[in-house]
From TrEMBL:
Protein name: N-acetyltransferase domain-containing protein
GO molecular function, one term: acyltransferase activity, transferring groups other than amino-acyl groups
Residue stretches making up the N-acetyltransferase domain: 7-168
Coiled-coil residues: none
């Protein structure tokens, strides 16, 4: 598994916004599959300023995934969503050219550890847009299973299919 450092972003700076925009631009396959278009300035803003109704702002977290001092991916985590004890990976993407090194798997493990160290570490969820077919195998391999729940959200190119995994220890 690739060695990473998961860095929580507490505020947006011009330098961080530029790094996030670069990584998003290096994930065109993800954005085309999930949104039907490439990422734009709105996605960068949303990455830093996501609000989740009913969740304290400190429990909605954005991260840079770094390897050897270079940002190679992005992730977000919502602690306490959708119920107490449960957390949700809101976003996880690794630059196309950095894939295959285990960075996404390592980031998932780090996000799970963060959840387990909080009061919201009994289970983890992720929503996968059905048009992002390549993602299902990755998440299933990490132990996530479909819950049977589907959501239709207008910002996505298809329905969101929810997967969940119990977290132990």
């Amino acid at each position: 598994m690739g060695s990473i450092e998961l860095v929580q972003f507490r505020e947006a700076t011009p330098e961080r916004e530029a790094e996030v925009a670069r990584v998003m631009a290096e994930c065109p396959d993800y954005y085309r599959a999930v949104q039907g278009r490439l990422a734009g300035p709105g996605e960068v803003k949303d990455f830093f300023h996501a609000e989740v109704p009913g969740i304290p702002p400190e429990d909605v977290r954005s991260y840079g995934i770094y390897s050897q001092g270079r940002m190679v991916g992005l992730a977000s985590l919502v602690l306490g969503w959708k119920r107490p004890g449960q957390s949700m990976i809101g976003f996880l993407a690794v630059s196309e050219r950095e894939r295959g090194h285990g960075f996404a798997r390592a980031a998932c493990c780090a996000l799970e550890a963060t959840a387990r160290s909080s009061p919201h570490g009994t289970s983890m969820r992720i929503g996968i847009v059905e048009t992002n077919a390549n993602a299902f195998g990755f998440w299933r391999h990490l132990g996530f299973v479909e819950t049977g729940e589907r959501k239709t959200l207008e910002e996505f190119a298809g329905d969101v299919i929810l997967l969940e995994k119990p977290l132990h220890g």
